[in-house]
Write a structure and sequence with these properties.
Blueprint lengths: L10 H5 L5 H13 L1 H12 L8 E6 L4 E6 L2 E2 L1 H5 L4 H4 L3 E6 L6 E5 H17 L7 E5 L4 H13 L2 E4 L6 H10 L4 E5 L2 E3 L2 E3 L1 H9 L7 E5 L13 E3 H7 L11 E2 L3 E7 L7 E6 H15 L7 E4 L6 H13 L3 E5 L10 H9 L3 E4 L1 H10 L2 H4 L8 E5 L5 H11 L6 E4 L33 E4 L11 E7 L9 E2 L3 H9 L6 E9 L5 E6 L3 E4 L2 E4 H9 L4 E11 L3 E10 L7 H14 L8 E4 L13 H8 L16 H15 L3
Parallel strand pairs: 4-17, 6-7, 6-8, 7-14, 8-11, 11-12, 16-17, 16-18, 18-19, 19-20, 29-30
Antiparallel strand pairs: 1-2, 3-13, 4-5, 9-10, 14-15, 15-23, 21-22, 22-24, 24-25, 26-27, 28-29
Helix pairs in contact: 2-3, 6-7, 8-9, 11-12, 14-16, 18-19
This protein binds 5'-O-(acetylsulfamoyl)adenosine.
Length: 653
């Protein structure tokens, strides 16, 4: 295609927008000319402060120091709940759609306030104080939102661990930030399956010396083991504290830690991404309002689990800080069938749908009738996040789900950025399928070459960096500030490096091309190659493994594992099963390799570095395009691997 189709801003989106194209151009220019003034004004307008801030910004990208709004005091739960009570006390804050279609509940702002105050009192009665770390390992239930908000009311730092993670993954996260409390449920429901959360939590906590109590939400009637002294039923203890009230919100400093969320990097174990109070909340609030062009009567359906940053920012904090109605969905997109999202949309009259390209591709494959048999007339806006969206999936989302009338916001951002960074604005930006289009107001992207030289002008491709701080950016890696500096600010000194490749096209539109480091993006989930490799080696069968991403038509990227077995181990189905089971157990089912190829040796340089470039080409099926192999210690391994992989693919490994 010589040039890409452009979808103009639909007139429907223009009529009552918060920001049209000339307003965007003007605000953007202002926000770049004087960022501190711009963000200070936003902070005063969008947040409620107990005490005003004095110093808008203090930063140094060489030492990785970022401080916003110092001197200010505020509380996140007050901003998300209390301040709405007067005008929106009876407005629905959270709608919950359970695993079974039609099993639903909701909480108004007043009801949410009450629930959060009670849980705050309960957590304090268990000894939780400002600054303590609280792990949350819960399914998508209202209690998850309530517990997160109660932590923020106390000033305790929550770390939510996705309920699909294994006991080991949970244990490592709890220990990394020494949590004193773990909140979990007896059991989770995920489509046709049950998830034994408490059993997994028990396994994890048996190796977590800092955990004093496990608070257990009763999600189902299935019994679970309870340990005297340590384990407490959530609803029972709520009853036992009834009548007492210790729910006053703690005024927090702007830069006090708000939460930790673990995410995979290119090396070593997952990093605890640390976000702080004022900057994160402002950024979630601001971006939610403008990216989704928030209207008072919106029902926001973000399909992400609160175990991911998208759930934090756009199921919980962004919507509630704006006084909006947010929908929490407990189930999966294909239960009981591939029409579930649209069933939810029709019954709850959702106005915004925000989901991941992998879900769109999976649903598109099932056929249009799963969509068209439900009414989507309430929907005015569609969004995507998590990975590049291929134009075919974009066009299907636009024409079939959105009936051609809804703008699509393809939002690029990261756990580290706290909120959306590059995205169209529904009333301002004509879209091109597959492009995240333009930076939001206040965001200063920059494309550099491998040496860090800025690539000026349009029609350039390189690495995506950000040259100036924004309030939502992470402040540190929990417990390891040097790792923070090293990971994000040392590749290109003076810049924040995203890890993504990017092209800026002839119109100045940004196209994210994917990770340029050793991070995989499998169905929108981030995984480090090193993390998966060490899990494979833990199986005991494998001496050495190299993992690469391979194209996958639903997941975007799948995982191919090249494994060198220990001498006595047979390269058979049993060994493969053992490897897959180990990866599931050590990380989670998300990390299960799609291909396991037993090879005699890995392509290595003379200094012992694995040449992943070659394995990636082989994984892509481009056997003749592996490129220069002359720097390999033993070039003959390449031909061996190629014939092995070809044979495996023919026999449909
Ligand atoms: C929000 C989230 C971050 C990585 C990021 C990219 C990729 C996310 C898009 C995207 C192309 C998008 N946080 N990514 N959104 N790539 N277009 N709209 O996903 O920390 O889990 O992942 O995801 O590679 O660096 S995350």
């Amino acid at each position: 295609m010589s040039h890409n189709p452009i979808f103009p801003v639909p007139s429907q989106a223009l009529t009552r927008t918060r920001m049209n194209s000339s307003q965007y151009a003007e605000s953007y220019a202002q926000s770049i000319a004087n960022p501190e003034e711009f963000w200070a004004a936003q902070a005063r307008e969008l947040l409620s402060w107990r005490a005003p801030f004095q110093n808008t910004l203090d930063w140094n990208f060489h030492t990785a120091t970022i401080k916003w709004f110092e001197g200010g005091k505020l509380n996140v739960s007050e901003n998300c709940i209390d301040r709405h009570l007067e005008l929106r006390g009876d407005k629905v804050a959270l709608i919950w759609e359970g695993n079974e279609p039609g099993d639903t509940k909701s909480l108004t702002y007043r009801e949410l306030h009450r629930a959060v105050c009670e849980t705050t009192t309960l957590l304090r009665s268990l000894g939780v104080k400002k600054g303590d770390r609280v792990a949350i390992y819960l399914p998508m239930i209202l209690e998850a939102a309530v517990c997160m908000l109660a932590c923020t009311r106390i000033g305790a730092i929550h770390t939510v661990v996705f309920a699909g993670f294994s006991a080991e993954a949970l244990r490592d996260r709890i220990n990394d930030c020494s949590c004193s409390i773990l909140i979990t449920a007896n059991e989770g429901l995920r489509g046709p399956k049950t998830v034994p959360l408490k059993t997994t939590a028990d396994q994890a906590v048996s190796e977590c010396p800092t955990v004093r109590h496990v608070l257990v939400v009763k999600r189902t009637e299935t019994p679970c083991p309870m340990q005297d002294d340590r384990d407490v039923w959530y609803h029972e203890s709520l009853n036992s504290i009834a009548g007492s009230d210790n729910s006053a919100a703690e005024p927090m400093d702007s830069e006090d830690p708000l939460f930790i969320l673990y995410t995979s990097g290119s090396t070593g174990k997952p990093k605890g991404v640390l976000h702080t109070t004022a900057g994160y909340l402002l950024y979630a609030t601001h971006t939610f309002r403008y990216v989704f062009d928030l209207q008072e009567d919106d029902v926001h359906f973000c399909t992400a689990d609160i175990g991911w940053i998208t759930g934090h920012s756009y199921v919980l904090y962004g919507p509630l800080a704006n006084g909006a109605t947010s929908l929490m969905f407990e189930s999966i997109p294909t239960y009981p069938d591939a029409g579930r999202y649209w069933d939810v949309v029709e019954r709850h009259k959702a106005t915004i749908v925000y989901t991941a390209p992998t879900a769109i591709r999976a649903l598109a494959k099932e056929g249009d009738h799963f969509v068209t048999r439900y009414s989507r007339s309430s929907v005015r806006l569609l969004g995507t996040v998590g990975e590049p969206i291929n134009p075919d999936a974009w066009l299907w989302y636009h024409s079939v789900v959105g009936e051609g009338r809804c703008p699509i916001v393809d939002t690029w951002w990261q756990t580290e950025t706290g909120g959306v960074m590059i995205s169209p604005l529904p009333g301002a930006t004509p879209t091109k399928p597959g492009s995240a289009t333009r930076p939001l107001v206040g965001v200063q992207p920059m494309i550099v070459d491998e040496q860090g030289q800025e690539l000026f002008g349009n029609d350039v491709t390189g690495r995506l960096c950000i040259r100036f701080p924004w309030p939502g950016m992470m402040r540190s890696v929990y417990g390891d500030h040097e790792r923070f500096r090293q990971t994000y600010f040392s590749t290109f000194p003076g810049l924040y490096f995203t890890g993504d490749g990017c092209r800026r096209d002839e119109d100045g539109y940004y196209w994210i091309t994917g990770r340029v480091d050793d991070v995989l993006n499998v169905a929108g989930h981030r995984l480090g190659t090193a993390e998966v490799e060490s899990a494979i080696v833990r199986s005991g069968a494998v001496a050495e493994a190299a993992v690469v991403g391979v194209p996958h038509d639903v997941k975007g990227q799948g995982i191919a594992a090249f494994c060198v077995l220990h001498a006595e181990v047979l390269p058979d189905a049993g060994t493969k099963m053992k490897i897959l089971a180990t990866v599931r157990e050590v990380i989670s089912p998300i990390a299960t390799p799609d291909h396991v190829w037993f090879v005699a040796g890995l392509p290595k340089t003379r200094s012992g570095k694995i040449m992943r470039r070659i394995l990636r080409k082989i994984g892509e099926g481009e056997y003749g395009a592996v490129g220069d192999v002359s720097t390999l210690a033993d070039p003959s391994v390449v031909a061996d691997i190629v014939s092995l992989v070809q044979a495996a693919r023919l026999s449909k490994d």
